[in-house]
Amino acid sequence: MIVLNAILHYYNLLPYWGKPWGEFERFEVGETSLQNFSYKKAVQQSKFYQKLKECISEEVYPANGNTAYDYAEDMYFYLRNKDKDMDFDELWTCIEMAVHYDLLSYEDVVDEYDEPEIGTGANVYRVFKLK
């Protein structure tokens, strides 16, 4: 944005010249440019990510799929009991970014059973960890 703004100023392509005034003051572009930015660090340092990291540690969730949406869906039904303000879209976005940047890992736990009344089978659970 800063580079684009400098080009627009250089070629006089803006609707005004000089210092922004009136309604245009809120659109003024700062002169500080980013020198070092990482989406991975931004995800890890976000408040929601930090809160989620604390909430999901040592919890066991059902294993229903292998996509970020499935992970978020599994977590959401349990996390909304802890936090009524939990937003699924925000959770899904955070999990999607964590999966993309390899920040989310999980371990499957298989609970096998052999009951005379029920029969034999297994339940699969997951323990998620955020780095």
Tell me what you see in this structure.
By secondary structure, the protein is of the alpha+beta class. Helices cover 41% and strands 20% of the residues. The protein has five helices and three strands; from the N terminus they run αααβααββ. The protein has helices spanning 2-10, 39-45, 47-56, 68-82, 88-100; strands at residues 61-62, 104-115, 119-130. Strands 1-3-2 form a three-stranded antiparallel beta sheet. Helix 4 crosses helix 5 (88-100). The radius of gyration is 24 Å and the shape is elongated. 10% of the residues are buried.
- Kindly name the structural category: alpha+beta
Radius of gyration: 24 Å
Strand arrangement, largest sheet? 1-3-2
Helicity, as a percent range: 40-55%
pLDDT averaged residue by residue: 84
Following the backbone from N to C, one meets helices and strands in this order, namely: HHHEHHEE
Low-pLDDT ranges: none
Percent in strands: 15-25%
